[in-house]
Amino acid sequence: MSLPDSELPRTEDEWRVRLSPDEFRVLREHGTEPAWTGEYVETKTPGMYRCRACGAELYPSDTKFDSHCGWPSFDDAIPGAIREIEDNSLGMARTEIRCARCDSHLGHVFRGEHFTPKDTRHCVNSLSIRLDPSTA
Ligand SMILES: [Zn+2]
């Protein structure tokens, strides 16, 4: 499922041919899919959510919760899988999250909202992830 390191694209042009135009816009150009349109907003299927660009494991399905914000939301991630970057675009102080392996954009992380005991909400574009359903 996961791309071998030797096959990881090195340039944006290499990514462009691998991804659909919508995936490219979100993953490589930091786009955001419209709320409530993503395929995983309400998904409860058990499994592992992987980076849609490189296949790295990001979020086990048991970290997903209903935030009612219109995007898939997770309160934890695989240790080391996510990189956080300060994002002051659009006049807001937010924290962007990217795949630590391939540097693709996932969404933003918010803390202090009290949704879950971990008090963390990874707000992720469905276009940035792919569910690998568990067969167990
Ligand atoms: Zn990745």
Automatic annotation (TrEMBL):
Any one GO biological process: response to oxidative stress
Main enzyme class: oxidoreductase
A molecular function (GO) term: peptide-methionine (R)-S-oxide reductase activity
Cofactor names: Zn(2+)
Catalytic activity from the UniProt record: L-methionyl-[protein] + [thioredoxin]-disulfide + H2O = L-methionyl-(R)-S-oxide-[protein] + [thioredoxin]-dithiol
Superkingdom per UniProt: Bacteria
Keywords: Metal-binding, Oxidoreductase, Zinc
Pfam families: SelR
InterPro entries: Met_Sox_Rdtase_MsrB, Met_Sox_Rdtase_MsrB_dom, Mss4-like_sf
Keyword Iron found: no
Domain called MsrB: residue spans: 12-134
EC number in record: 1.8.4.12
NCBIfam families xrefs: peptide-methionine (R)-S-oxide reductase MsrB (TIGR00357)
Protein name, UniProt field: peptide-methionine (R)-S-oxide reductase
